[in-house]
């Protein structure tokens, strides 16, 4: 049995304003109540849009809810003249535990390179935010049989220049682009194969300690009815969930299924 705590993170993307966010988190908390989940069983994280974070913080902290939250992106810059950007220090002060970096939608829509992603990780770890680094191949790379090389290359470039100590707590999300929001899920065997390759490469680059401690998630059309099979692999430590995290009850059902409740 792995020492790593199962992590179930719901990336809402650009869905839910701050009022909808409050209702969603309340319903999630209520729907999870009967399962009596605790830190020993798993960690449940919501990742709303920036404009919801203050409301989510107030609710979670005020009602002492057993949930964590994070942001979908972070600026690589320090606070200053960068219109529209959100600094890591701001997210940290809002009580965020996690920040997603390098999501494929940001890589595609905002031309984020691995170098930019590395700079965002640098900003995050400098302010005690745990990065959830997203990597994963497109359909063309998978069909060509280059999916492992491509994904490991993305990871290595995004982690270039870091020491193992700086990456303590790191989370990697393997998200094949062809499986995101499409209803196409990689098989549990595909997810397991990539997670094992990621862990091995982490060991080669950063040592066995970091490789053993890093949580590796799978993301791409994960739902309550497929999550248990996916997280059954010893190298898959949870899921990054988009669509199925938008409804509190649905995400709660997924979390319960993942821990076998
Ligand atoms: C995601 O956005 O990271 C994701 C995995 O989305 P979905 O679950 O909707 O495929």
Short note summarizing the structure:
The chain has 261 residues and is α/β, with parallel strands linked by helices.
Heteromolecules bound: phosphoenolpyruvate
Give the overall pLDDT as a whole number. Answer: 96
SSE topology string: EHEHEHEHHEHHEHHEHEH
- Low-confidence runs of at least 5 consecutive residues: none
N-end to C-end Cα span: 18 Å
Number of helices: 11
The major sheet is characterized as: 8 strands, parallel, barrel
Beta-strand content bin: 5-15%
Q: For the CA atoms, what is the radius of gyration?
A: 17 Å
Q: How would you describe the oligomerization state of the chains in this entry?
A: single chain
- Inertia-based shape: globular
Strand order, largest beta sheet: 1-2-3-4-5-6-7-8
Helix content: 40-55%
Number of DSSP E strands: 8
Q: Briefly note the structural class of the backbone.
A: alpha/beta
What does this structure look like?
- The chain has 261 residues and is an alpha/beta fold.
- The protein is built from eleven helices and eight strands.
- It has helices at 18-33, 53-62, 88-93, 104-109, 114-125, 139-144, 147-158, 188-206, 208-213, 227-231, 248-259; strands at 7-11, 43-47, 68-71, 98-101, 130-135, 171-174, 215-219, 238-241.
- It is globular, with a radius of gyration of 17 Å.
- Bound molecules: phosphoenolpyruvate.
- Phosphoenolpyruvate (PEP) is lined by residues 11, 13, 175, 180-181, 219-222, 240-244.
- Residues 11, 13, 175, 180-181, 219-222, 240-244 line the site of phosphoenolpyruvate.
